[in-house]
Design a protein that fits this description.
It contains 13 helices and eleven strands. It is α/β, with parallel strands linked by helices. The chain has two domains: about 160 residues, no CATH class; about 190 residues, Alpha-Beta Complex (Spore Coat Polysaccharide Biosynthesis Protein SpsA, Chain A). The strands form two sheets. It has a seven-stranded mixed sheet, sandwiched between helices. A four-stranded mixed sheet has the order 5-11-7-8. α3 crosses α11 and α9 packs antiparallel against α10.
């Protein structure tokens, strides 16, 4: 088992005592910092990178539900090196669950299609759908539309799953008292070697490593054209459906050099970290989700999640993002009438936005990211 430098740093941070006390001391130093506000912040962000044009429409399944237990959706784009091991791990499941594998070739330009076709010829459980490139959301949405199983799950095509992963998820889902099930996961490197220990999903809102009853997806899809599309689970699924957490590290999350989160340098597209919040609040309204049910999530997204992406932002963008978030959330606050919070940082984040305290916002973001390592 390997533990790379990043894992060692995370372990040291997790083990460091008194992090919260140190945050409270630092908070005293910045609590009365000079206010910062940029009146036209949103408009300036629009000039840097406009909000994607995707608009929510009511989705539909292409097929009626069948007696098949599960549809496993595998979106694939230029993953010639990894899609074979991914499909091998799916097809090798030790389970009595009757499943289909929907592989969506999302306009790949390398040898991905050939690898998929080879596996499809060997195993009739695989259905291959080819489309022009629509991005991860578009590929997943196509898979959802085409699903015929009673339940759905997602496996990203550069990842793998352990032999008993499907059985663990479906056993928990069938046990009742929940609408979807969430597992833990294990990091692996490009060669498939385990990195560190298995990890809990306490802070991760990803679509993979979960099994959902089909009805969860009756009226929602992933927002196309956006990065951070998995954020929709927290805004549109979590408020309406019950989750069950299980202790299973069978989802094997592969770290690759091409991962968006590991590329260096500024990227205007990463401003979707803000735009996705606006989009999902709009969609929540269309689904009649009360604003009070997503307000606390929105303020946390506007601080900790935005801060987490800051290495991809130009330094000049950060005050703009802060001011745009502040203006958006003050309107949301009026709609929500929320007076109490569930998380320790939420009240401080709201104070930072109310008082236009950029330095406090920045400090909370830093502490919040360290706390979720």
């Amino acid at each position: 088992m390997k533990m790379n430098v990043k894992e060692l740093v995370k372990h040291a941070v997790r083990s460091f005592p008194c992090k919260y006390q140190m945050y409270r001391i630092a908070r005293l130093a910045v609590r009365h910092a000079k206010p910062l506000h940029i009146d036209n912040a949103r408009e300036r962000l629009m000039r840097i990178h406009p909000r994607p044009a995707y608009r929510y429409t009511r989705p539909e399944f292409a097929y009626a539900q069948t007696d098949r237990d599960l549809s496993i959706i595998v979106p694939a784009y230029n993953v010639e090196r990894f899609v074979g091991p991914c499909l091998e791990s799916v097809l090798s499941q030790k389970t009595q669950v009757d499943f289909e594998v929907i592989v969506v070739n999302d306009g790949s330009t390398d040898g991905t299609a050939d690898v998929i076709a080879e596996y499809a010829q060997k195993d009739s459980r695989i259905r291959v759908i080819s489309q022009s490139n629509k991005g991860l959301s578009g590929a997943r949405n196509t898979g959802i539309d085409q699903a015929r199983g009673k339940a759905l799950m997602f496996v990203d095509s550069d990842d793998m799953i352990a032999p008993t992963h499907v059985d663990a998820l479906m056993t928990a889902l069938r046990a009742g008292d929940c609408d979807y099930v969430t597992s833990d996961y294990t990091d692996i490197d490009e060669a498939g070697n385990q990195i560190g220990q298995g990890k809990p999903r306490e802070f991760m809102g990803t679509a993979w490593g979960r099994a959902y009853w089909r009805y969860v997806w009756n009226d929602v899809r992933f927002p196309e054209g956006y990065l951070y599309e998995d954020t929709m689970l927290s805004f549109l699924i979590k408020p309406r459906y019950k989750n069950k957490q299980i202790e299973n590290n069978g989802y094997l999350y592969r770290h690759t050099k091409s991962s968006i989160s590991r590329n260096k340098g500024t990227d205007k597209k990463c401003l979707d970290a803000y735009w996705i919040i606006e989009e999902l609040i709009d969609e929540a309204r269309l689904l009649n989700i009360p604003t009070k049910d997503v307000y606390e999530l929105a303020i946390r997204q506007c601080c900790v999640s935005v801060y987490e992406r800051k290495q991809r932002f130009s330094k000049e963008w950060m005050p703009l993002i802060f001011s745009a978030c502040r203006d958006f959330l003050m309107i949301l606050k009026e709609e929500s009438n929320v007076s109490s919070f569930n998380f320790e940082l939420s009240k401080d984040i709201e104070e930072a936005f109310k008082t236009e305290n950029y330095r406090l916002w920045f400090l909370i973001g830093c502490y919040g990211v360290l706390s979720t390592l």
